[in-house]
Write a structure and sequence with these properties.
alpha/beta; 437 residues; five-stranded parallel beta sheet; 12 strands; globular; single chain; four-stranded mixed beta sheet
Length: 437
């Protein structure tokens, strides 16, 4: 039976995380973790769930963009979509009029991600598999058929992509078994948001160490002397052998980034994340070159628009760590392209997951990367934040600082109906309370 998509609904769901400074950094001082939350209904009762992550204000704009795309989705059958997934991806990104709003970047691309995330969730549910397993079980040619190679074929052809996937078949079952036993290594960002007090930092770091965490990320960029003090404090708590990363969230100009991070080199950070504008490829290259003698890499990608920008970051040797995001790029389709390009350029992928639902989503992509693409865990880890997982029907599972592969069918981003109702903006009970205050 064909599963025809008969309806698309999208809701503005917001969580008031700014009240306790969760998610706060040098650029985003008062984030409310939020999502444009998409539900697809089919004529046989199966549903698909997807989202695009936002920080509160502006979510209503992403909702409008999703609604503008709905006419390209409703009426299609799941089977027809997945039979030519590349064509469907291009249909959403190449509408003759809406393409002008991007193309393939900004709000319209985030809306595309939300819709496609829901389609992938629907497909995985129809197959009765978690998304990572759906991908792992695919033939290399089928995986490649989901990718739009337009604009990247000068660095990665379909034939090269198939060859990468074919070579990774060796040891594939052993790696899948390993992931099911051990999980994928994670690092925590939850201990050191910029708005946290020293006492919070100390307590959260101590608790994390007790729970097996050995990789910690610290937000920096607001005040240099305070950054030095906070990073020294955290390095003292976690000890010399554990891994420390720093994240400036785009705060600096290029020369300022080099100077600032040079001052922080004493705490031996593995990387500086988003040191400058996420669009400045040559700026990132200059920072990478300047910091290389200090043994500090540059990481970025959570706000990288599309596969074309990632291509250029890699061509320019501007990143030592690639950070994909499950809701910034055009869903699984475009992330597959970036995983394959990163492998060709021998740059490790360490996904961004700081936001509601992002851990649930991106765990599937990084599991696929290890099992079917990179076959390597060196210098690789996936971000984890310990916020809002209780609002999902299949929340992420962390054991001994590792992501345990999800077992439920789908893409793990279905929210509890009660949570959606309570947090829908502006009419949900949570927001009614905030307005009264």
């Amino acid at each position: 039976m064909l599963q025809n998509i008969i309806n698309l609904t999208v809701k503005d769901v917001r969580f008031p995380t700014s009240l306790e400074q969760h998610g706060s950094d040098a650029m985003h001082t008062d984030p409310d973790y939020s999502a444009a939350y998409v539900v697809l209904d089919t004529d046989d009762g199966l549903k698909g769930f997807g989202l695009a992550f936002t920080l509160g204000k502006g979510t209503e704009i992403v909702v409008c963009a999703v609604q503008a795309l709905a006419g390209l989705v409703v009426g299609k059958s799941l089977q027809d979509i997945v039979r030519n997934f590349r064509g469907f991806y291009r249909l959403l990104t190449s509408d003759g009029q809406m393409r002008w709003l991007g193309p393939e970047k900004g709000v319209i691309h985030m809306a595309t991600a939300a819709v496609l995330n829901a389609v992938w969730d629907l497909w995985a549910r129809a197959e009765g598999k978690p998304l990572w397993k759906l991908l792992v079980d695919m033939d290399p040619k089928q995986i490649v058929s989901c990718i739009d190679f337009r604009y990247i074929s000068d660095v990665l052809t379909e034939e090269e992509a198939i060859d990468i996937l074919m070579k990774a078949k060796e040891g594939k079952q052993q790696r899948e078994d390993q992931m099911l036993r051990e999980g994928y290594p994670a690092y925590t960002t939850s201990c050191a948001w910029l708005g946290y007090s020293d006492q919070q930092l100390k307590q959260l770091c101590a608790d994390a160490l007790q729970n097996g965490w050995s990789r910690f990320k610290v937000k920096v960029g607001a005040d240099l002397e305070d950054d030095i003090r906070r990073c020294r404090l955290i390095r003292q708590i976690i000890g010399p052998s554990n891994t420390l990363m720093i994240d400036a969230n785009q705060r600096w100009d290029v020369a300022e980034a080099i100077s600032w991070v040079t001052r922080l080199a004493e705490v031996k950070p593995l990387w500086i994340e988003e040191p400058t504008s996420p669009d400045d490829i040559l700026g990132h290259a200059a920072i990478s070159k300047a910091l290389a003698p200090l043994g500090i890499g540059v990481a970025s990608g959570e706000q990288c628009h599309n596969r074309v920008m990632f291509k250029q970051f890699l061509q320019a040797s501007a990143l030592q760590f690639v950070q994909i995001d499950s809701c910034r790029l055009g869903s699984v389709n475009e992330n597959l392209a970036v995983l394959l390009m990163a492998h060709k350029f021998k740059v490790p992928v360490c996904p961004h997951a700081g936001g509601v639902g992002l851990c649930e989503l991106v765990q599937h992509l990084i599991l696929f990367d290890y099992i079917c693409v990179s076959a390597d865990l060196s210098s690789r880890m996936c971000e984890y934040v310990d916020h809002l997982h209780e609002h999902f029907t299949s929340p992420v599972v962390i054991e001994n600082a590792h992501y345990i592969p999800p077992k439920d069918p789908g893409y793990s981003c279905e929210m509890l109906e009660s949570s959606v109702k309570r947090h829908e903006f502006p009419g949900g009970d949570v927001w009614k309370l905030q307005i009264k205050k």
